[in-house]
Amino acid sequence: MLSRVFSSLLRVRVTLSYATALFVIASLLLILGPQVQDRVVGHLSTNLENLGRGHLGTLLGSAFVTAEGYTYLLLPGLVCLLALAELLWRSRRLIQAFALGHLGATLIVAAGLAAAIKLGWLPISVAHANDVGLSYGALAVLGTLTAAIPMRWRPAWVGGWVTTALVVAVAGSDFTASGHAVALTLGILLSIRFRSDSHWTPHRLSLLAIGIGFGLLMLIGVSPHVAPIALPAGIAAALLATWARRRWVARSQSSRAGLATVSA
């Protein structure tokens, strides 16, 4: 019995290690008080000011703190999402996906903000805005699940998520939403390299359902007022993608049937 439990925990060791680190750091910051937390967040933020000074360590450290102190609320959903990905892709690929989303989206957003400030589209104060958290990495991991979604549902999955992320990024007022869209897209692109022969057991479907809810919370949470627009748009895109795929499959089958008749 104990060996089975230990074996199961070992399969999600990266998820548990990361969740433990987040819990310990959040607890320490809570004990030390809000002033210390603000200093730590400012020091680890991947904003333009820190990156411009060569503080590249923030690219790693920023993934272990949250600016609003919501770590405890985010942990259950995060653990379910990362555990599912680790069960599907194994530990190494989970790390690759999370790192790609966190680092890639951070650097792309930083480059975009720097260009916008230089062109006068954004105020210089944006360079000092805090940018920490786990959302970029988590959304990239969510994007990689595309490879595990059955082919007939994959267009709806991609269309729904990408549309929701883009609507929030365009209609919202927080540059973090743009980072979310970038991270999700990076994860979807990375999923092209992933292959999954695993079956969707009830346990994994439960993890997926919680992971979907967590992903929506990450996307909508930065601009809640956009939810009445973003969610219907995502659902509409998913339905449209499903309809388009069915039309394409029907035409392909019809064409093959026609060729078979001519050959006969």
UniProtKB/TrEMBL annotation:
The keyword Transmembrane helix applies. Keywords: Membrane, Transmembrane, Transmembrane helix. The keyword Transmembrane applies. The chain crosses the membrane at residues 12-32, 69-88, 100-121, 133-149, 156-172, 178-194, 206-223, 229-246. InterPro entries: Rhomboid_2. It comes from Mycolicibacterium peregrinum. This is Transmembrane protein. It comes from the Bacteria.
